[in-house]
Amino acid sequence: MTDLNLSDPALLRGQAYIDGKWVDAASGETFTVDNPANGEVLAEVAYCGEAETKTAIDAANAAQPAWAAKTPKERAKLLRDLFNIMMANQQDLARILTLEQGKPLTEAAGEIAYGANYIEWFAEEAKRIHGEVLAPPTGDKRVVVIRQPVGVAALITPWNFPNAMLTRKIAPALAAGCTVVCKPASETPLSALAIAELCDRVGIPTGVVNIVCGNTRAIGGELTSSPIVKKLSFTGSTGVGKMLTEQCSGTLKRLSMELGGNAPFIIFEDADLDLAIKGVMASKFRNAGQTCVCTNRILVHENVKDAFVEKLLAATNKLTVGNGLDEGVDLGPLVSVKARKTVEEFVEDAVSKGAKVHEGPSTPNGECYSRPLVLTDATKEMRVFSEEIFGPVAPVFSFSTDEEAIAMANDTEFGLASYFYSNNVARCWKTAEALEYGMVGINEGIISNEMAPFGGVKESGQGREGSHHGLDDYLEVKSLTFGGLS
Ligand code: SIN
């Protein structure tokens, strides 16, 4: 293992975590995890496949009844301990995250706190899994509704939030009494394995949390086809979400899908432009534009467009791009060379169709850096209107009426996050209700927190994470009808 300069080097793990043990792949194979800032190899990780996944599923299945039988308070206590230990190790976890993913260290520390907040939240919610007593259907009957854990859950998580996307799934699953088999993204497995190390340290029982990394197709194939796995929760692209949904159809698993977005950011004529700039900078450039809730299309009223663009260019030019470990960096590298090339293709397409490029600050040398930029004169014919950019490119479109803005915003198969700025209460209500999205930021560019339901409509997925709704995805509803009571 490379020395990552951690206060606690034991947080760096390269083996799979199955049934409470750290194990190598049966084949002995490993894969490398690289630092996108400079291409250096950070670690070798066990390259697991079908066999290891099967073992992990069996371990989760064996552990599930005893875990579900624990009192909610006992499960809550362990989750609370996990929250505490994550926060106690925040700096090391942030360092691992920055090294494998690229985001600035302060943003990574923010992600650790964001991720830990889900654990704390669901530690509390674990004690609030309530049933119902219904009105009697007939005089001699009574109906009671109870909620029980779904069972073994498979959790497949992406590289853009290697910590928080996992905790947002593990926490409600464990709170509900489910056990889990997790497959983190191959670009960023180290954050997930560090969480497993902390689960182990706080005494989460053997087999409750299992993590396998490696052959995505083989692991995914086993997780989706196994009749033991009762639920799949996936965060990633819409294309992969559809494929996993198909694969799960054979065993009709419960599904939570948090998929792609194409977020509009509408600036009405009456908006506070400075507030809107603050919001759009946070929403567009968070994680170098690599979030599924990032602003994808900026829609500005024609009367304020010039003033808004001037402020946007000034704010973009102030950004600092660099190695996430360096002080004062706002944007790190993108996760891979492939990611950077994809972003460049979006820009080339827009330019070939008439967009004007306003380049932002320069980047250091390094193959994964993508220069932040603003595109003006953007039109609906460009790919940036209909596809998720996932990079630091801010295309500006204009509109002349509210109806046109809302129609443009909804003109997409996606429906995850949306944002708008206005000081008119009636316009706020009307727009919020008309936007076909699971989440709407109103005079606000950051909408993610553990208390708010996170999820989308249309092809952005199904199910909700976070909030008290987040538990529902891991619980079955069972009705008990008591008869003979006359
Ligand atoms: C995501 O990009 O998948 C999640 C973003 C967030 O939690 O804010």
Walk me through what this model shows.
Helix 2 crosses helix 6. 53% of the residues are buried. The chain starts with 15 loop residues before the first strand and ends with a strand. Helices cover 38% and strands 20% of the residues. Helix 5 links the parallel strand 7 and strand 8. The chain is built from 14 helices and 20 strands. With 486 residues, it is α/β, with parallel strands linked by helices. It is globular, with a radius of gyration of 23 Å. Bound molecules: succinic acid (SIN).
Q: Over all CA atoms, what is the radius of gyration?
A: 23 Å
Low-confidence stretches: none
Biggest β-sheet description = 7 strands, mixed
Mean pLDDT: 98
Beta-strand percentage range: 15-25%
Number of helices: 14
Q: Which structural class do you get from the secondary structure elements?
A: alpha/beta
Overall shape: it is globular
Q: Please tally the β strands and state the result.
A: 20
* Helix fraction by DSSP (H/I, runs of at least 4): 25-40%
Bound molecules: succinic acid
Distance between the termini: 71 Å
Q: How are the strands of the biggest sheet laid out side by side?
A: 14-15-16-13-12-17-18
Quick tags:
globular; 486 residues; 14 helices; alpha/beta; binds succinic acid
Write the layout of secondary structure elements.
Elements: E1 16-18, E2 21-23, E3 30-34, E4 41-46, H1 50-69, H2 72-88, H3 90-101, H4 105-125, E5 132-133, E6 142-149, E7 152-156, H5 164-176, E8 179-183, H6 189-202, E9 209-211, H7 216-225, E10 229-235, H8 238-248, E11 254-258, E12 263-267, H9 273-285, E13 295-301, H10 305-317, H11 337-352, E14 356-359, E15 373-376, H12 383-386, E16 393-399, H13 402-410, E17 417-421, H14 425-434, E18 439-442, E19 461-462, E20 475-482
The protein binds succinic acid (SIN).
Succinic acid (SIN) binds at residues 160-161, 165, 235, 291-293, 448.
